[in-house]
Write a structure and sequence with these properties.
By secondary structure, this protein is mainly α. The chain is built from 7 helices and no strands.
Length: 149
């Protein structure tokens, strides 16, 4: 994953794509920050799964910013955030639909044999392990709560 981002960064430099270049630099900076934090724990570098988590978080932050910018009438800034989301999303697996998320939640609940809200953390942990980067865990949490209540 890291190599894919680096090669895209080099290509964006060659093509002089400013938005893509700045977004890729932000991704690489976030990955390096996480690398530094992990080294303190004695590990070597972030995994592809952790890179997907970083990028998912970046997309979520930008979606929240878009909402705020649109409410404030700052459409140009909202468009810039959307452009960054488009770049980041290009490196992530295709996102699951609501129906797919609900089906995955049902499957995990059956596999684990969980029965109540006390097992929500266990269920969410299993979902994150299996569907990192492709699932909106905010939506998944709502579905899990509905299914466990």
């Amino acid at each position: 994953m890291r190599e894919k981002i680096n090669s895209a960064l080099k290509e964006a430099m060659k093509q002089k794509e400013k938005v893509k270049l700045s977004t890729l630099r932000l991704i690489m900076a976030a990955i390096k920050d996480r690398d530094i934090a992990i080294r303190a724990e004695g590990k070597e570098a972030v995994s592809d799964e952790q890179i997907l988590e970083i990028m998912s978080k970046m997309v979520k932050q930008r979606r929240e910013s878009i909402k705020i910018y649109e409410e404030a009438g700052r459409l140009q800034l909202a468009q810039q955030e959307q452009s960054e989301i488009d770049v980041i999303s290009g490196f992530m697996p295709e996102q699951m639909s609501d129906d797919e998320i609900k089906a995955a939640c049902e499957t995990i609940i059956k596999e684990l044999g969980v029965s109540g809200l006390k097992d929500m953390g266990k269920t969410m942990g299993a979902l994150k392990g299996k569907y990192a980067g492709s699932m909106d865990f905010g939506k998944a949490g709502k579905f899990v709560k509905e299914l466990l209540v």
